[in-house]
Fold this protein.
Amino acid sequence: MELRTNGERAELVGPDDRVIDPAVLDVPAELTTALDEWAQVVAAMQRADAPEDASAAVLVSRRGMQLADRLSAVLETTVSYHDPLTGEVLFVDAAPPSPASALPAPEPTPWLTGLTVSALMAVVTITAVLTLAITLNETSGLLAIGANIVVTAGLAPSVWLARRVLIWRWVAFGVASGLALGWIALIFVLL
């Protein structure tokens, strides 16, 4: 299979010099469109008699090579690329598909360790929040509520950002649980 241009159209030519329609080969529509756009740029450059060493010509040749590479991957075969500006013929081999087993298997979620860390962080957080609330409640109940608001507002952004980080999500879950339990316990402290 060879990729070349004919006027403002990209052509795929088989071994018997017969032009093959990309739709017959199940080439994606966006790749077919990209090939035709590339061919139109090549035709415009040929009409303008642009010099071969111009940076635009190098970019157009490189784009054609990239499209040939994509075409080779889609068709899973070697594609020869006939550079319309330089006349070179280059061969692009289809990249072998990577086996699924080459991807690393996701690690199992450490539930026991994670929940232990979450429980410890909840205990530390609720202890700190309650100690502050009990101490400030001796002065004023509104001061205890204000302190709880300040602590919650201060920790909320950090908890929100850490909720998706693999290890820190357990700490974030524990702190969030401790804050929620601290608000419930504040009701009993104020009574």
Q: What stands out?
A: The two ends are 83 Å apart (CA to CA). The CA atoms of residues 108 and 166 lie 11 Å apart. DSSP finds five helices and five strands in the chain.
